[in-house]
Amino acid sequence: MTHDEVSGQGPLPRNVADEYLDAFTQLDPITGRFLGAPESMEGLPDYSPDGHEVLADLARRTLRRLAVAEQTPNSEVSRERHCARLLRERLTADLALHESGEKLRNATNFRSPVRAVMESFMMAPPRTQGDWESVVERLTAVPAALRGYRTALAEGLSRGLPGQPAQLEELLTQLQTWIGQNGSWFQAHVEEGPPILRAHLDQAAQVATTALLELRDWLRDSYAPAIVNASDVIGRDRYVHMARFFTGANIDVDEAYAYGWSEFHRLLDEMREQSQQILPEAETPWDALGWADEHGEAVFGAEQTRRWLQQLMDTTIEELDGIHFELPEQIRRVESEIAPGGTAPYYTPPSADFERPGRTWLPVMGRTRFPVHSLVSTWYHEGVPGHHLQMAQLVYTAAHHSRYQTTLGKISANSEGWALYAERLMDELGFLSDPARRLSYLNAQMLRSMRVIIDIGIHLELPIPSDSPIHPGKRWTPSLAQSFLASHSGLSQGFVKNEIRRYQGMPGQAIGYKLGERSWLAGREAAKQRHGSQFELRRWHMAALAQPPLGLDDLTAELSQL
């Protein structure tokens, strides 16, 4: 029982949310491990149809409890109302995926249980003997987890719910990489284990590797032939379910598609004009960006670049704090680091006590020269005033929110929308006056606009408008999308190919950046109209950052009232 139930007042929405979080992490130890729950170090989830149904039952029970909690006195306090709205939206979105059978056809490389299992071993390196003992237990649990996943896919086939052939091919390729030619990923993972556990680690790694082999063989020999004639296009109904999961909104896909095109044309005009300030003879904006890559301002060396980025964030804080934001001292500290791997910059939030600060991470990938123009708006996005201000502020105000809101309840489109809004804000405030830096910012906006167009276009096979600069009148296919993105981004063919695969593997995720930014901008504009001459951007920013996560259907309405 919660304190409120003992006192006779009944649970509040935050009590219901946190009890759901605790129950969920018991059933999904990978999520529990990601959130730092000590009891989640050893197990793996049940990915079978029965396991899915247990989670669905938990969601249904929680929704019933939430309905009761909303009748409790004080449940209308704004923080309780926010928590209730988020919990209901998230649970109903997940139940919609479950009830449509989406989890029985999840044969993808990007979001499958196989990837979740593998990433559970990559979250944090084992350091103590106890950590390695937990690794043994988790390795031993791999066969059951993968058998459950296989059972779910087989159930999907029996219900006429096949996966996507192209995504299955990607998954098989990734499985082969993990299996390896001269030893598996699991076997390499345990090499650094303590000698006292050597035999146990080697045996457990072999058990887990055998499970990967058995799953690969079944997917290749039984599942792939069964779905060979299935479509890689998911269609409108499935897309709407998936988009809601990532955005917290019931997307009007036709309106969003049209919005993506309107932003594409607006940005293309701006980019063409901006590129003339860099290279007047440039035929395209990407020619000008290529020239800036080769001849523009650059920083040399990974460590020097790390220091340059640190100075950029420190200076940005000094110039924004007290004018456009009011930052607590803990949030003024953010660190620039070199990433241990990966291909794209990212951000990690601070620890609850701020002993570990928020950090931005730069992948080096063997480079020694870093063009400045491509770093600035990216660090406004990842660092200040982007992800760092929002996520660190959420940590700072955590006592005012449920644990669910600050962990499991986060919504991609909300946070990515804020980070894209942060880039635009810095342009509005005049921080991107350098032509090359501003062109890079516009190019980043262009990529997010094309994500809306392509992600919706390929999954619904929509027609390409007559005013498109490429392929007018045709219907979207992955190959057309790859051509379109390559000719309007300056990205390498390899990067473009991976982008399209990502859209195919996670329908509805890529649209969240641009649609999220639009929600933040609409909320700010509505608040401006509401307050008139009394509107103060600094006050609105801090009130907005004090908001816990909300889906896009609720976000604009809440922001407009600040």
| Radius of gyration, taken over Cα atoms and rounded to an integer in Å | 24 Å
Instruction: Work out the number of β strands.
Output: 5
> Average pLDDT, to the nearest integer?
94
Structural class: mainly alpha
User: Strand content of the residues, in percent?
Assistant: under 5%
Roughly how much helix do the residues carry, as a percent range?
A: 55-70%
Give the overall form. Answer: globular
Q: Report the major sheet.
A: 3 strands, mixed
Q: How is the largest sheet built, in terms of strand order?
A: 2-4-3
Poorly predicted sequence stretches spanning 5 or more consecutive residues: 1-8
How many domains, as an integer?
A: 2
Secondary-structure element pattern, one letter each: HHHHHHHHHHHHHEHEEEEHHHHHHHHHH
The total of helices stands at 24
Quote the distance from N terminus to C terminus. Answer: 35 Å
Give an account of the 3D structure.
The chain is built from 24 helices and 5 strands. It is mainly alpha-helical and 562 residues long. It has 2 domains: 229 residues, no CATH class; 263 residues, no CATH class. The protein has a 3-stranded mixed beta sheet. Strands 1-5 form a two-stranded antiparallel sheet. The longest helix has 30 residues. It is globular. The N terminus is likely disordered.
